[in-house]
């Protein structure tokens, strides 16, 4: 998990900002996965930090949802 956090900081993926008093904050959780090689042997653990977007209510917290994707 520390390795993933270091990568997030290195890539400047996000920045910590102060919480606004009258705004809703979306919670997050860590998702862990064991990475295996083609022989099925354990290589390393992977961790992702994901938002719990299902806790939002359409029309209250957002009007539209955007999913950024990369295209070649």
**Oligomeric state, counting identical vs distinct chains:** single chain
Q: Can you give the mean pLDDT?
A: 77
Shape: elongated
Q: Give the C-alpha Rg.
A: 17 Å
Count the helices. How many?
1
What order do the SSEs take from the amino end to the carboxyl end, as H and E?
HEE
**Model regions low in confidence, pLDDT < 50 over at least 5 residues:** none
Per DSSP, what share of the residues sits in E-state strands of 2 or more residues? 25-35%
Strand order of the largest sheet: 1-2
Summarize the main sheet.
2 strands, antiparallel
| N-C termini distance | 30 Å
Total strand segments: 2
Task: Produce the secondary structure layout.
Elements (H helix, E strand, L loop, with lengths): L1 H9 L17 E9 L5 E10 L21
Antiparallel strand pairs: 1-2
Descriptive account of the structure:
This protein is 12% helix and 26% strand. The chain has one helix and two strands. The protein has one helix spanning 2-10; strands spanning 28-36, 42-51. A two-stranded antiparallel ribbon has the order 1-2. Strand 1 and strand 2 form a beta hairpin. It is elongated, with a radius of gyration of 17 Å. It starts with a helix and ends in a 21-residue tail after the last strand. The mean pLDDT is 77.
In short:
The protein is an alpha+beta fold and 72 residues long. It is 12% helix and 26% strand.
Properties at a glance:
single chain, 72 residues, alpha+beta, 1 helix, 2 strands, 12% helix, elongated
């Amino acid at each position: 998990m520390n390795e993933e956090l270091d990568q997030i900081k290195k890539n400047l993926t996000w920045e910590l900002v102060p919480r606004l008093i009258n705004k809703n904050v979306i919670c997050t959780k860590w998702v862990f996965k064991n990475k295996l090689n083609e022989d099925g042997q354990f290589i390393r653990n992977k961790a992702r930090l994901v938002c719990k977007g299902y806790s939002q209510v359409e029309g209250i917290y957002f009007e539209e949802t955007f999913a950024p994707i990369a295209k070649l």
